[in-house]
Design goal:
about 260 residues, alpha/beta, TIM Barrel, eight-stranded parallel β-barrel, 8 strands, about 45% helix, binds 1,3-dihydroxyacetonephosphate
C-alpha cells in the first residue's frame, strides 16, 4: 500500500442522471476488486440520495472497494434564509463524507473569493465532512510565471482562517484552469512540480500533515494520461470531470489509481 491511499473523485458537475449511477455500479460490482484506492462520487445534489441508495444496495458486491459520496459545493452558513443553498450538515445527513470547495468554476462564475472558500472549508469540517479544496492558476498566470504565487495565495487564505492543522482532515486538488475541460492536461512534470510545492508549503508548519495529505490532480485526466500523472511521487490520484461521466473510462481510472 502506498504511503497515501490514492483517490479518484468523480465531479459530475451539472451532468449525469440517476441512470448513470446505475450503470456505474453495474460495472463497479464486476470490476472494483480491492480497497487500494478510494473512490468518491460527487453527483449533482439532487442525485446524492439516489446514488447513495444504490451504493448501499450494492455494498455487498463491491468486494471491499471503498466508494464514498461527495458533493460539489456547500454553503458557508449553518442555516437560515439562503435560498437555493445546502448546508454542510444537510450534506452529512444525506450520506456525504466529502465536499468539493473552491472549484474554479465556482470561483470564476459565482464570485467565490478565497475568503468565502475558507469559510466553506470551515463549515464542511465543522459538520464532519472532509473538504476537497481546489486550487489552480489561469493560463495567463502560468505564462506570467505566477503559478506558485496564485496557489500560495489560495492556500494561505484557507490556512490563515483554519490553521495548518485543519489540513489533517482535508484533500487538496490542483486543477489548473487551462486544463479543466480543455482536453489539454498538465504534463506529469508540471503537475508534480506544483504538487511538490503545495506539499512543501504545508510541511513548513507540519511535516506530518505535509507528508500525509492527499493531493489530487484535476484537468483533462483520461485513461490515456492517468498512469503517467498518478505515478508522480506527489500526485495521489485525480479529480475527474468529463471522464467521470463515462462508466468505462471512470472505472478504468479507478483501476489505474489502484495500481499506482
Ligand atoms: O474540473 C474538473 C474536475 O473538478 C476537471 O474537469 P475535466 O476532467 O473535464 O477537465
Amino acid at each position: 500500500m502506498a504511503l497515501r491511499r490514492p483517490m479518484i473523485a468523480g465531479n459530475w458537475k451539472m451532468n449525469g442522471s440517476a441512470e448513470l449511477a446505475k450503470e456505474l455500479f453495474k460495472k463497479f460490482t464486476a470490476k472494483l476488486e480491492n480497497d487500494s484506492a478510494e473512490v468518491v462520487l460527487c453527483p449533482p445534489s439532487i442525485y446524492i440520495e439516489s446514488v447513495r441508495q444504490q451504493l448501499e444496495a450494492n455494498k455487498a458486491q463491491l468486494n471491499g472497494a471503498l466508494v464514498r459520496m461527495g458533493a460539489q459545493n456547500v454553503s458557508q452558513h449553518n442555516f437560515g434564509a439562503y435560498t437555493g443553498e445546502i448546508s454542510a450538515k444537510m450534506l452529512n445527513d444525506a450520506g456525504c463524507q466529502y465536499v468539493i470547495v473552491g472549484h474554479s468554476e465556482r470561483r470564476r462564475m459565482y464570485g467565490e473569493t478565497s475568503a468565502i472558500v475558507a469559510d466553506k472549508f470551515a463549515a464542511a469540517q465543522k459538520a464532519g465532512l472532509t473538504p476537497i479544496l481546489c486550487v489552480g492558476e489561469s493560463g495567463p498566470a502560468r505564462e506570467a510565471r505566477r503559478t506558485f504565487e496564485v496557489i500560495a495565495e489560495e492556500l494561505d487564505v484557507v490556512i490563515e482562517k483554519n490553521g495548518t492543522l485543519a489540513f489533517d482532515n482535508a484533500i487538496i486538488a490542483y486543477e489548473p484552469l487551462w486544463a479543466v475541460g480543455t482536453g489539454k492536461s498538465a504534463t506529469p512534470e508540471q503537475a508534480q512540480e506544483v504538487h511538490a510545492f503545495i506539499r512543501s508549503r504545508l510541511s513548513e508548519v507540519s511535516p506530518f500533515i505535509g507528508e500525509k495529505i492527499r493531493i489530487l490532480y484535476g484537468g483533462s485526466v483520461t485513461p490515456s494520461n492517468a498512469a503517467d500523472l498518478f505515478s508522480q511521487p506527489d500526485v495521489d490520484g485525480g479529480l475527474i470531470g468529463g471522464a467521470s461521466l463515462n462508466s468505462t473510462e471512470f472505472l478504468s481510472l479507478c483501476s489505474i489509481a489502484m495500481s499506482s
